């Protein structure tokens, strides 16, 4: 590979996309772990109870809202 190709716009764009994918995957992993630990207190059955389902929904929404707020603040 030619060293000048390392600074090509296409490569930089590809690397940025891969970084974004990795960040999204990391966020999903943290969200899943955090909300599972908070909302599923017993041994899970074949489906979630209504309280577990509601808790998981609200937990995920709050997590995403806070993550977006933090990202916006960091960009300012």
TrEMBL record:
Q: Where is the TFIIS central domain?
A: 1-34
* Keyword Phosphoprotein tagged: no
Q: What is known of its domains?
A: The twin CX3C motif contains 4 conserved Cys residues that form 2 disulfide bonds in the mitochondrial intermembrane space.
GO BP terms in the entry: protein transport
Q: Which keywords label this protein?
A: Chaperone, Disulfide bond, Membrane, Mitochondrion, Mitochondrion inner membrane, Protein transport, Translocation, Transport
Superkingdom classification of source: Eukaryota
As for family, the record states: Belongs to the small Tim family.
The annotated subunit structure for this chain is: Heterohexamer.
**Membrane-protein topology:** Peripheral membrane protein
Protein localization: Mitochondrion inner membrane
Q: Which organism is it from?
A: Castilleja foliolosa
What name does this protein carry?
Mitochondrial import inner membrane translocase subunit
* Gene transcribed to yield this protein: TIM8_2
* Keyword Cell membrane among record annotations: no
Its function, per the record, reads: Mitochondrial intermembrane chaperone that participates in the import and insertion of some multi-pass transmembrane proteins into the mitochondrial inner membrane. Also required for the transfer of beta-barrel precursors from the TOM complex to the sorting and assembly machinery (SAM complex) of the outer membrane. Acts as a chaperone-like protein that protects the hydrophobic precursors from aggregation and guide them through the mitochondrial intermembrane space.
Query: Matching Pfam families, A to Z?
Result: zf-Tim10_DDP
């Amino acid at each position: 590979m030619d060293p000048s190709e390392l600074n090509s716009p296409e490569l930089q764009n590809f690397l940025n996309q891969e970084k974004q994918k990795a960040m999204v995957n990391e966020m999903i992993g943290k969200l899943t772990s955090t909300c599972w630990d908070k909302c599923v207190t017993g041994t899970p059955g074949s489906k979630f109870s209504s309280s577990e389902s509601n808790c998981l929904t609200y937990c995920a929404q709050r997590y995403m809202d806070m993550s977006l707020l933090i990202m916006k603040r960091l960009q300012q």
